[in-house]
Amino acid sequence: MSTNEPDHGGSDVAVHDGDLPARFENPGLPEHKHRLTDTDPKAARRAEKQVALLFVLSIVGTLVMIVGYFAVKMDHGLGFLDYLDRLALSNQILGIGMAVSLLGIGVGAVHWAKTLMPDEERIDYRHLQRGTDEERADAVEMLNTGVEESGFARRPLIRNTLIGAMALFPLPGIILFRDTGPLPEKVLTETFWKAGDRLTLDPEGGPIKASDMVLGAVAHVMPEGIEEAEHVLNEKAKAAVLLIRLEEDQLAPESLDGAYGGIVAYSKICTHMGCPVALYEQRTHHLLCPCHQSTFDLTQNCKVIFGPAKRALPQLPITVDDEGYLVAAAPFGEPVGPSYWERS
């Protein structure tokens, strides 16, 4: 029983006698209300065209991105302000195109689900994660039924425009990433080093004689003449070499062919992510990359002994010229720098 008694504020407060039912009856699902597209074929066809139009809009947005990327030229001869203006215009076209492309796919998918896909309310009770074979077969049948009910197979206009929008959407990303620079195979396989190039100190410059390299000495070197390279910073980034002298009997047999009197030269570019390997531990003869702690053993031809790097540092073969200066006997025998998918 419930009674209503006035409280001090003048409002009514419900009071019960403490008895509660053991359980509440399931109220069931509310009566389903059909949409216009469920009852009117013309409305369904109209909605289908609207969804297809949104997918076509996505295709147009993707094409705008691609065309805009190539149409706005970023010429090297532009002045600074003209360059900024064109850069801003290019970014605006790319941004608007991507927004339209994503919006078309997103809104089209939502409109498709709201107007054409089944919307009956259903109850699904929890069950064990691994069902019986019969239940799994039923699940597959339900998925197939869902595909059928969604109209994906029966509505080729929606299906084809969606496939077109989804197929074109990744293209701008592929174009943008591909245009960030040449492929690694064409860049890392060629450095400024060639046979006969003198090793010069970096950054002070000047050639090095083999007699200057005492036992345990370390030097950072570049090829002579690199300052005159067309893209000097790019060339320096690939040509950086670490020069170290050890006892000849400490070197691995495979590294002796490229050494001279215990002096070895290895690329400074880590084969993991391209950081400079410039920390040398003289007692253990280990080279350490400070970025991710990849460790290379000089006595084992710069083999990786710790860290994420997967390849040894490439060796630069060296010898001396008629004046006793250290020179490259040949270019690097393999690509320098980080590993990539085209490396064997």
From TrEMBL:
Similarity-based family: Belongs to the Rieske iron-sulfur protein family.
The root-end lineage is:
Bacteria, Bacillati, Actinomycetota, Actinomycetes, Kineosporiales
Q: What is any one of the record's Gene Ontology cellular component terms?
A: plasma membrane
Membrane topology qualifier: Multi-pass membrane protein
Which residues are listed as membrane-spanning?
Answer: 51-72, 92-113
| UniProt key word Transport | yes
Domain spans labelled Rieske: 261-327
Query: What is an example of a GO molecular function annotated in this UniProt entry?
Result: oxidoreductase activity, acting on paired donors, with incorporation or reduction of molecular oxygen
- The name this protein carries in UniProt is Cytochrome bc1 complex Rieske iron-sulfur subunit
Q: Which UniProt keywords apply?
A: 2Fe-2S, Cell membrane, Disulfide bond, Electron transport, Iron, Iron-sulfur, Membrane, Metal-binding, Oxidoreductase, Respiratory chain, Transmembrane, Transmembrane helix, Transport
- Which Pfam family would be a valid example here? QcrA_N
Q: What does this protein do?
A: Iron-sulfur subunit of the cytochrome bc1 complex, an essential component of the respiratory electron transport chain required for ATP synthesis. The bc1 complex catalyzes the oxidation of menaquinol and the reduction of cytochrome c in the respiratory chain. The bc1 complex operates through a Q-cycle mechanism that couples electron transfer to generation of the proton gradient that drives ATP synthesis.
Record localization: Cell membrane
Identify the InterPro entries for this entry. Answer: QcrA_N, Rieske_2Fe-2S, Rieske_2Fe-2S_sf, Rieske_Fe-S_prot
UniProt-listed SUPFAM superfamilies: ISP domain (SSF50022)
